[in-house]
């Protein structure tokens, strides 16, 4: 038997997760304001923030794969949302939003 849980992130939550992960890991972002945010859903999920400097220059900052998953997991842990350490985790798209998919099998479901 398997149990699958999905934690669906709104865009604002996903941005917060990515920014917090960047601060935690020392990944610096270009100076400026986030002017747009988009999620590419195929073939892999990629979150792209466009940051516009005070001079009007734009920089695109992509986050995908293990880095995106780590940001989402840390965001959940920070908010005390249970994320089983030994469960399989992946990123999915549900209802047009990015979700953290957690799959537990056998003994993990108890």
Using brief descriptors, characterize the structure shown:
elongated; 2 helices; 110 residues; 3-stranded antiparallel β-sheet; alpha+beta
Task: Indicate the topology.
Layout lengths: L1 E8 L1 H15 L7 E8 L5 E7 L5 E7 H14 L9 E7 L2 E9 L5
Antiparallel strand pairs: 1-6, 2-3, 3-4, 5-6
Helix pairs in contact: 1-2
Written account of the structure:
The chain has 110 residues and is of the alpha+beta class. The protein is 26% helix and 42% strand. It is built from two helices and six strands. A three-stranded antiparallel β-sheet has the order 1-6-5. A three-stranded antiparallel β-sheet has the order 2-3-4. α1 (11-25) crosses α2. The longest helix is centred in the N-terminal third of the chain and has 15 residues, at 11-25. The protein is elongated. The N and C termini lie close together (10 Å). The mean pLDDT is 91.
Proportion in helices: 25-40%
Number of strands: 6
| Percentage of residues in strands | 35-45%
Whole-Å distance between the termini? 10 Å
Secondary structural class: alpha+beta
User: Spans of 5+ residues with little confidence (pLDDT < 50)?
Assistant: none
Rg, rounded, reads: 15 Å
- The string of secondary-structure elements, in order, is EHEEEHEE
Strand order of the largest sheet: 1-6-5
Shape: elongated
Largest sheet descriptor: 3 strands, antiparallel
Number of helices: 2
Kindly report the oligomeric state of this protein. Answer: single chain
Task: Provide the residue-averaged pLDDT.
Answer: 91
């Amino acid at each position: 038997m398997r149990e699958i849980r999905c934690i669906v992130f709104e865009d604002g939550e996903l941005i917060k997760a990515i920014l917090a992960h960047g601060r935690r890991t020392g990944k610096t972002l270009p100076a400026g304001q986030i002017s747009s945010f988009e999620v590419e859903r195929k073939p892999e999920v990629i979150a792209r923030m466009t940051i516009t400097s005070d001079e009007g220059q734009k920089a695109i900052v992509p986050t995908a794969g293990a880095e995106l998953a780590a940001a989402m997991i840390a965001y959940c842990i920070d908010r005390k949302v249970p994320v089983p350490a030994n469960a399989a985790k992946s990123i999915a798209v549900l209802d047009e939003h990015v979700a953290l998919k957690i799959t537990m099998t056998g003994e993990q479901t108890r």
